[in-house]
Amino acid sequence: MILTKLTAYSFLLFAGLGYAAASWAGGVPAADGLLQIRSRHLDEFHLRPNVDFSGYRGVLIDPVQVSLHEEWLKDINYRRATMRRIGEDEVRRVTDEAASSLQAIVAEAFRAKGYEIAAAASDGVLRLSPSIARLYVNALDAMASGTTKVFTREAGEAMLILEARDSNSGTLLARVVHR
């Protein structure tokens, strides 16, 4: 699917809170209290000033939220014969698969960095809220019965968002946005 090793790498950077190679973009904190940090690897990286992540040993991962690009269904069905149009069941399959894939990637990335996956909020636990926005899949698996190969120049696109909060207080600590 669209969620590849690059996605995993982006979240690994966040999991390691790899902002050592980044620098403050300057300026005043936004309304949510976060400062933007320049990053060579992520489109947007925002961090609460003076936050200390060293006390966090676990992560509680919220269910992944997925939204399709507003034109996707219309575009994909425009190119198909009436009998092969994508319906609500296929839309649900695409969003469920994307959510499941990202859920596993986030859990694996944080486990690889030594975090425990927590079942509930508690001291030393970050609450992670991953989401996919504007998902646009160019080629679906099994687009037509009898089709064995599908070729496309680009798999599609999406905006990946990950927010981290203190699980007890709900304070927003960091946000990553990567397109």
Topology overview:
Elements: H1 5-15, E1 23-24, E2 35-38, E3 44-47, E4 58-61, E5 65-68, H2 72-78, H3 88-112, E6 116-117, E7 125-137, E8 156-166, E9 172-178
Parallel strand pairs: 4-6, 4-7, 5-7
Antiparallel strand pairs: 1-2, 2-3, 3-9, 7-8, 8-9
Helix pairs in contact: 1-3
How would you characterize this protein structure?
With 179 residues, the protein is of the alpha/beta class. Helix 1 packs across helix 3. A hairpin with a 5-residue loop joins strand 8 and strand 9. Strands 1, 2, 3, 4, 5, 6, 7, 8 and 9 form a 9-stranded mixed β-sheet that branches. The longest helix is centred in the middle third of the chain and has 25 residues, at 88-112. It has 3 helices and 9 strands; from the N terminus they run H-E-E-E-E-E-H-H-E-E-E-E.
Low-confidence stretches: 18-22
SS-derived structural category? alpha/beta
* Shape verdict: elongated
Roughly what fraction of the amino acids lie in strands? 25-35%
Largest sheet: 9 strands, mixed
Taking Cα atoms only, what radius of gyration do you get, to the nearest Å?
Answer: 18 Å
Average pLDDT, all residues: 81
- DSSP helix fraction: 10-25%
Please identify the oligomeric state: single chain
Number of helices: 3
Give the gist of this structure.
The chain contains 3 helices and 9 strands, in the order αβββββααββββ.
Features:
179 residues, 9-stranded mixed beta sheet, alpha/beta, 3 helices
